User: Which sequence fits this backbone?
């Protein structure tokens, strides 16, 4: 179903309760097509078309956390598209300090996370998910990290404990955050992922190369109210490793800062473990 047909269907069914006076395409994700609709009553909406499975889980996420102050209000869900209220803000606008962003994200969304419903888990394994993510990242990172670094991250993943699973955003980074007047005002484009809330928190922390320090992380965590079975510094290493691969694919200009952050957190990890840091080099 193309966007023109979707708009015609919304008009025919009077889904929005007002005539549509204008619409135009917005920049979408990798697979989605997105448009902004303006109605005669002054309201604006976003229409997003994607594969039925992704649309289903996006609508589930928005309904599951309908009281979140950072998520758009779901208006209508069909098989191939969703309609939600337009949120003002922009992913490219000036961002607040990362510590403030993490505070607002935690209080406005992550602390609202709820355990998954019975029947959702199926055969999902959190540890297997992490192993797959790290293996895919390794293929991209290649020689930028040493063999010792690869062995370390594999060991950290293997040591991850069993976690209580929650419905997560799954792509909770600055590329999906809306900002206005230097403040976080919205979170968009959730994916289908079950896991611990800490994953989304660390994903957000690692999603930009600025302020990747322990003080910033601990400040954000001071507002975090969910249980966490894992080991913090090891979880940050996992988040950084995955982010390094995405950096190489999408923002290679940030690589130097992420490699510095990797060495910084690796030292913290070994310090916490009271271990001797093996000789390793960043190529």
Assistant:
């Amino acid at each position: 179903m193309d966007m023109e047909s979707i708009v015609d269907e919304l008009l025919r069914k009077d889904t929005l309760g007002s005539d549509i006076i204008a619409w135009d395409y917005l920049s979408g994700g990798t697979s989605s097509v997105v448009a902004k609709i303006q109605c005669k009553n002054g309201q604006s909406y976003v229409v997003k078309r994607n594969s039925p499975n992704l649309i289903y889980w996006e609508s589930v996420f928005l309904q599951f956390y309908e009281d979140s102050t950072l998520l758009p209000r779901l208006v209508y869900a069909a098989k191939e598209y969703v309609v939600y209220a337009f949120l003002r803000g922009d992913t490219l606008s000036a961002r607040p300090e990362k510590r403030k962003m993490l505070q607002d994200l935690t209080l406005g969304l992550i602390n609202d996370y709820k355990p998954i419903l019975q029947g959702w888990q199926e055969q999902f394994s959190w540890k297997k998910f992490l192993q797959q993510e790290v293996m895919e990242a390794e293929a991209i990172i290649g020689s930028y990290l040493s063999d010792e670094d690869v062995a370390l991250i594999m060991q950290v993943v293997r040591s991850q404990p069993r976690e209580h699973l929650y419905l997560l955003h799954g792509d909770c980074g600055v590329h999906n955050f809306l900002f206005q007047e230097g403040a976080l005002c919205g979170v968009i484009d959730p994916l289908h992922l079950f896991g611990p809330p800490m994953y989304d928190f660390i994903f957000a922390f690692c999603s930009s190369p600025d302020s990747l320090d322990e003080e910033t992380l601990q400040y954000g965590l001071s507002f975090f109210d969910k249980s966490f079975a894992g080991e913090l510094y090891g979880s940050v290493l996992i988040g950084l490793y995955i982010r390094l691969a995405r950096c190489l694919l999408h923002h290679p200009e940030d690589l130097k800062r992420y490699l510095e952050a990797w060495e910084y957190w690796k030292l913290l990890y070994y310090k916490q473990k009271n271990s001797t840091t093996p000789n390793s080099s960043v190529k």
Remarks:
- The chain has a mean pLDDT of 93.
